[in-house]
Amino acid sequence: MREGWARRGRWLLLLFFGSVLIADAPPAWPQPPPTSAPQEPEAKISVRVDLVNLDVTVTDARGNYVRNLKQGNFRILDNAQPQPISNFAPVEAPAQVLLLVETGPAVYLIHRQHLISAHLLLGGLAPDDAVALATYDSEARLQQPFTTDKRGLQAAIAGLRYNLGRSELNFFGGVAAALDWLAATPGKKSVVLLTTGLDDGPASRWEMLLERLRTSEAAIYPVALGGELRDPPKANQPTTPDAIRVAESFARASDNLRTIAEVTGGQAFFPREPKEFEAIYKQIATILRHTYRLGFAPPARDGQFHRVLVQLLDDKGELLGPFYAELEPEPGQKPPRKSLLPKSTKYRLFFRRGYVAPN
Predict the structure, then answer these.
(1) What does the radius of gyration of the chain's CA atoms come to, in whole angstroms?
(2) 151 plus 36 within the same structural domain
(3) Side-chain-side CA neighbours of residue 14 (13 Å)
(4) Contact criterion met (CB below 8 Å) for 242 and 17
(5) Which CATH number covers residue 231?
(6) Are residues 311 and 275 in the same domain?
(7) Residue 3 falls within a domain, yes or no?
């Protein structure tokens, strides 16, 4: 039955995207509500006081949070150069999560995944975790401000309306609007995306969002919807121009979701079946509440974007990982005396990958 549903869903999507994905005119950039006007300086608050703050989550191979780490267990690299850590504190605080849900016409065909996903997420959060709800199709809308009333949120999600017209899908604009809404929210904040990741606009809109992500302090956790419908057509299935276009669009969308997660310090998930959502949301709930906050002084006041990497050390100062390809020496160069390259990688680290230095 599941194979038959997936096959029908795939061809419905092909019929939809075959006519929509070729559209060229970009939709209007979504505007946040008047009460949540963008406040760009908030996105750079950590460097205005000459201190870069990083929220770092460390998990083991099974996704469990690693506790009891000390300041000496971390190394921060700013543009590949080690920096002294001036502030350190384990943080176990209530989460503030903006749930951004795609409500376009294509997702209506698989909207049951929305309901399953959202209910599992809310059920995995603690009573004092606050959640806000927003949706997007051609534009973004804030449906519910932050609240700890999980039942009320479940009712709001169950009553979501889907745009069944042929308006264009503005995923990148929806994410940008979500970041604008969160700019004035103090403390630790995150965005959980329930989305296909598809966007009908020009490539320039992706570049605009990428620049916005680099100055945001909100971690983003995309959960890709579509399951098996995201898979490319199999060898025994007929190949048409529409099928090729849909497959390429989903592949590009998946790459974008991974990039969004990496840049902001989140993690992207690609569940194939509804039963996988429960484990995913348990992991997200753990990450949202448990972090280590590291702070360091920016080494330069150049107004430029600095790439940041964090590595994990054992109690003797030996590097555990993770491995970063950009730390490898160029051909013919000698590795640094105290090598930055890891012996092994046993853990996973999630953190914001850069900041804009003060000018």
Answers:
(1) 21
(2) yes
(3) 19
(4) yes
(5) 3.40.50.410
(6) no
(7) no
Look-up: residue for tokens 């999630």?
Answer: 350
The whole-angstrom separation of Cα 262 and Cα 256 is 10
Is there a contact between 256 and 175 (Cβ–Cβ < 8 Å)? no
Please answer whether residues 297 and 50 qualify as being in contact, where contact means their C-beta atoms are separated by less than 8 angstroms.
yes
Tell whether 161 and 272 lie within a shared domain.
Answer: yes
- Please report how many Cα atoms fall inside a 13 Å half-sphere around the Cα of residue 197, on the Cβ side: 29
Q: Is 310 helix (H, G, I), strand (E, B) or coil?
A: strand
Q: State the residue range of the domain holding 137.
A: 13-40+93-289
pLDDT per residue as tens, the chain (359 positions) = 444 444 444 544 444 444 444 343 333 334 444 444 444 333 333 434 478 988 898 988 777 888 899 999 999 999 989 999 999 999 887 889 999 999 987 777 777 777 777 788 888 788 999 999 999 998 999 999 999 999 999 899 888 888 776 668 899 999 999 999 998 888 788 999 999 999 988 889 999 999 899 888 899 999 998 876 677 667 676 677 777 787 888 889 999 999 999 899 899 999 887 778 888 888 888 788 788 999 999 999 998 889 999 999 989 888 888 877 677 666 666 655 555 555 566 788 889 888 888 88
- Asked whether 78 and 306 are in contact (CB, 8 A), the reply is yes
Distance CA 23, CA 2 (A): 32
CA distances (Å), 72 to each of 21, 57, 68, 312, in order?
A: 50, 15, 11, 9
Angle between helices 171-182 and 203-214 (to 10 degrees): 20
Q: How many domains does the chain have?
A: 2
Pairing relation of β-strands 305-313 and 319-321? antiparallel
